[in-house]
Design goal:
heterodimer, A: mainly alpha, B: alpha/beta, 2 domains
């Protein structure tokens, strides 16, 4: 029984990570359970992993096509590739947040009856979506190869971009899962925001299309990540470094804040569900 | 490693009645207060109450320790604090070693997964590693007796099978500290016996055991020391027999007729006047004396006495009316006193006495006192259940196939067959 230490951030972060490490079998099993349940008694199976990004891409192509009609420019292959490259991480982000927000409430039984490090639930929710992300990414890689998008040294950025995306998603997942345990409003709020967030985030479009408003759009910490994916995979240019740095800082700060808040609120979970 | 398995040091736990928060206006300051760690203050806000107050005790490594108390005394809260589900409002709590609770053994099951998958899932939830489960898998399945159904989703299991699988997983955790809370009503008789044997194995293996039960005989056999909890406070810690004795006699204290009450049962005493007792043998005679007082005249009373078993299941009741007395009268300042005499044709166990004052004609209750007194029937080990039907064996022979030997139940953990 180690209470969160007020001495310094490092101490409790180490304690939290240590606890998660010592129960990594549990993290694995809960993640495995989420995946297993999702595909049990489902006809489409792994196709589901591709369905959501594919729908986003289809919508993106429609938007892009309309844009090209208005601008009197032909719809380029690069545009379609760019939308696809943004759609896959966006689908992961949205479904992770949606799933993780409910993860503690969905596991009320375990939260109130057995002691476990409860961070496991939002993290497992995120990890189970990561599997879908991986499947979709493989499909995307095949499509991009067929479209002859080509590869350059810029692809080395991809793991870093994925890492920042993971940090951001994990931080938000942990924060929202705890918040929704205390206020059920959070769940509906998240639904509304996620439904319309695609319009505020450069998925269907490039942030640069908005000229002077570029900076405003990039304040959304997801935006620089998606822009970077498109840059390094499709345009073969460097990511917008200052903005990517901004995303990385926001992600880390958010994750640390989320873990700290979660740890402080955790003793009240069993009484507050 | 210390010699103390667990230690509680002036632990307090505060709960709140009713809805947690009525509005955002309540909640935001409360959350802010929690984050600023002001919530550990001692004062109670409106509607808050202490579920536990100043709980201090320590259990040495390897000891079996009992916790006794009426429903609502705070036993479950202590267990929740021990297992880390909740944190104390004040005070410190120290648990050394891996803890396993035989409380919610099936909580981790997912209905859509098969028995095999759930063994792995629930096993990790209860604290085993994958490697440990793989190693003990066959033993777990054999223990549950569900070999044929192990690849069937547990949603198709009967509730008995579900509970058996849950207990089988939990029984193989091999903890340093085991918490047992009345789980042994799981499954059929043979399965219960297996559970008892397994628990004895765990205990002889050197684990510390915290045993919470209403089964006082099992408790006194298993645990050298016990703690008596009453309304969230420790009343006594000591040798189990002494603690059980004071638990059983606690109910025989008189109650006052409070100013806001019109009529009240003020005392329920077991045994002859002047020699109250709480331990009996089967077939002993028991006198139950019930006293009542009132602030205004009543003329249509009957007194009902009910005996319930440990699961609050009624065993017996009778009343003055049925025994031939007419409507009883009670004036302000007077005391109504009735003494019933019953013969305890009961099997061994713990029983509670409920007393009621009814309106004679309509049988409507004016006043009741549940678990006003508790007694213990020592009985003979030949009988299980509630009724003692005085069995004897008049014929018994062996045919070609021998009947399976009945395993011993040395501590009498199994409450009912």
């Amino acid at each position: 029984m180690t209470a969160p230490s007020a001495v310094g951030d490092r101490v409790w972060i180490r304690a939290t990570l240590g606890e998660l490490m010592s129960r990594r079998d549990l993290l694995y099993m809960i993640t495995w359970r989420e995946i297993r349940i999702k595909y049990k008694q489902s006809v489409m199976g792994m196709l589901w992993a591709v369905l959501m990004p594919a729908t986003i891409v289809a919508a993106g192509i429609v938007v892009r096509y309309g844009y090209s009609l208005v601008a009197h420019t032909p719809l380029a292959i690069g545009d379609v590739a760019s939308v696809s490259v943004r759609a896959v991480p966006w689908a992961f982000f949205v479904s992770s947040i949606r799933f993780a927000t409910n993860s503690l409430i969905a596991n009320t039984n375990l939260v109130t009856k057995i002691y476990l490090p409860r961070e496991i639930f939002p993290v497992a929710a995120m990890l189970s979506q990561l599997v879908d992300f991986a499947v979709a990414a493989v499909v995307l890689a095949i499509i991009l190869t067929v479209l002859k998008v080509g590869a350059t040294v810029q692809l080395a950025w991809v793991p870093i971009l994925v890492l920042i995306l993971l940090l951001l998603t994990t931080g938000l997942s942990i924060l929202l899962s705890a918040a929704s345990l205390f206020f059920r409003d959070v769940k509906y709020l998240v639904e509304v925001v996620l439904t319309f967030a695609i319009f505020f985030t450069p998925v269907f479009y490039d942030a640069s299309m908005f000229g002077p408003w570029f900076s405003v759009l990039m304040l959304n910490p997801v935006a620089p990540i998606l822009e970077s994916f498109s840059n390094v995979i499709v345009a073969h240019t460097a990511p917008p470094l200052p903005w990517l740095g901004y995303s990385a800082v926001v992600s880390v700060v958010l994750l640390v804040t989320a873990l700290s808040l979660f740890r402080k609120l955790e003793p009240y979970f069993a009484e507050s569900v | 490693m210390t010699d103390i398995a667990l230690r509680l040091d002036s632990v307090f736990k505060k709960f709140r009645r009713g809805e947690l928060y009525d509005s955002l206006r309540d909640l935001l300051p409360a959350l802010a207060g929690r984050l600023l760690r002001r919530s550990r203050r001692q004062a109670l806000a409106p509607r808050e109450f202490w579920a536990l107050q100043d709980i201090t005790f320590a259990v040495p490594r390897g000891e079996a320790f009992g916790i006794i108390g009426a429903n609502g005394a705070g036993k479950s809260t202590i267990l929740k604090l021990l297992s880390g589900i909740m944190r104390p409002t004040r005070g410190t709590l120290q648990v050394n070693g891996r803890l396993s609770a035989l409380i919610e053994v099936s909580a981790g099951f997912h209905p859509d997964l098969t028995g095999r998958e759930n063994i792995f899932l629930n096993g990790t939830i209860l604290g085993m590693t994958q490697a440990e489960i793989r190693q003990r898998f066959d033993a777990i399945v054999a223990f549950s007796g569900l070999e044929e159904f192990i690849d069937t989703p547990v949603k198709r299991y009967s509730s008995g099978m579900f509970a058996r699988l849950g207990f089988s997983v939990a029984a193989h955790v091999e903890p340093d500290l085991l918490i047992v809370d009345e789980v042994l009503s799981v499954g059929d008789y043979l399965f219960q016996q297996k559970c008892v044997q397994r628990m004895n194995e765990i205990m002889t293996g050197g684990a510390t055991v915290i045993f919470v039960s209403h089964n006082l005989r099992a408790l006194s056999t298993l645990c050298a020391r016990s703690l008596l909890l009453e309304r969230g406070r420790v009343v006594q810690v000591g040798p189990s027999n002494e603690v059980i004795k004071s638990y059983l006699s606690r109910g025989q204290e008189a109650r006052a007729l409070e100013p806001d009450r019109d009529i009240r049962i003020t005392q329920v005493v077991l045994g002859k006047p002047g020699e109250a007792r709480v331990e009996f043998e089967t077939d002993d005679f028991l006198e139950i004396t019930i006293e009542a007082a009132a602030r205004s005249p009543h003329e249509d009373l009957s007194v009902v006495v009910q005996i319930v078993d440990d699961n609050q299941y009624p065993v017996f009741d009778t009343c003055t009316q049925r025994l031939g007395a007419g409507p009883l009268a009670l004036n302000a300042g007077e005391t109504l006193r009735c003494t019933f005499k019953v013969q305890l044709r009961l099997a061994q166990g713990t029983y509670h006495v409920n007393a009621y004052l009814h309106r004679y004609v309509t049988d409507r209750a004016y006043e009741r006192w549940l678990s006003a007194a508790t007694f213990f029937v020592a009985g003979t080990p030949t009988v299980r259940g509630v009724a003692h039907l005085a069995p004897s064996l008049i014929h018994c022979e062996t045919r070609t196939r021998a009947a399976p030997p009945v395993a011993a139940d040395p501590v009498g953990l199994i409450s009912s067959p």
